[in-house]
Each structure stands twice: as C-alpha cells, then as structure tokens.
Predict the structure.
Amino acid sequence: MLHEQYKTELLLKAQDHVLGPPSAAVIIVEYGDFGCAYCRSAYSTVKILLDHFKDRVRFAFRHYPVVEAHPRAERAAEAAESAGVQGKFWPMHDLLFENQLRLEDTHLRQYAQMAKLDLQRYDRDMQTHVYLPYVRTQRDEARALGTHGTPTFFVNGVIEDVSFGMENLHKAIELNLQPANMK
C-alpha cells in the first residue's frame, strides 16, 4: 500500500499536463519515459482507454526518464516541457512516442517545428536546459513513490501493475467508476 505521505504527490498539480475534465471520477497518473518501448505500447492503449471512458477519467503524464536504459529520454522530456510552456505538450508527447526511435536533437527540433512551436524559444529552452530540473524532480518523485520501471500508473492514488499487460489498468478504472467506490 502506498504510504499516506506520498498520496498527496499523486493529486494533480497546476504544472501537470492533463487530459480530461476536472469533474472526472478517476484520476490516472502515468510516470513514463519517451525512450521506453513499453511506454510506447502503453501510449496506444491509453489513447484507447481515454476514448472509451471519455469524460469519466482524467489523465496526467509525468516524466520518469530512465537514462541508464534510454539515454535520449531525458532530452525528449525537456523538449516536451518546452512544448508544454507553449501550450503544445500533447502534440509533442504524441510525436515523441510515434517517432520513438528518432530522439536525437535534430529530430526533436523537427518535431518542435511540426508542433508549430516558436523555434527561437524552443532553441533557447533546449540550450539552457531550463526544464531539466523539473524533469529530474518528477523522476525523483517517481522513485520516492516506489516506482521501479516504466510505465508506472496510479489510479486514484493506487499503483496498478501493468507489467503483464494493460488489462489491470482498465479493470482498475472500471472498479473506481462503480458507485460504491466513487467519492
């Protein structure tokens, strides 16, 4: 069971990138890595789940770049945050997962252009690593919550094991939508 002191970390924060209405009964928080093949698979499934559950769920993506295994993931997370400040986090998020095998700086800049970012601002952000501390803070938060890999999902503050497939995530959402479990 998750320690009570960490449950507050799973509440949505002002700086989170979120899809879904504030009135949603279920909050899903993913700690993910743009270089992780399992996160790429989960990305497709999450899109399906969000479409299926529509306005009943709210989804937040947080960074957990595992640089030991995916050396370009941290840089991709910085690019996503740069896009986020320009209101384009989700288009960049999608481009990064859809082009996961190409996360070099030249590719990241192409995605920034495709997402219609202000490229001067993007270049400045990436050169100064202005979002790197934020990305690392989210990674450290994930570790403090006891995550051991990516992707890691929390549904209404409870970790869901998806190591053998995403069915558990779907079941957890449905369980939390049952009237007896809604608060």
Summary: Confidence is low (pLDDT under 50) at residues 1-8.
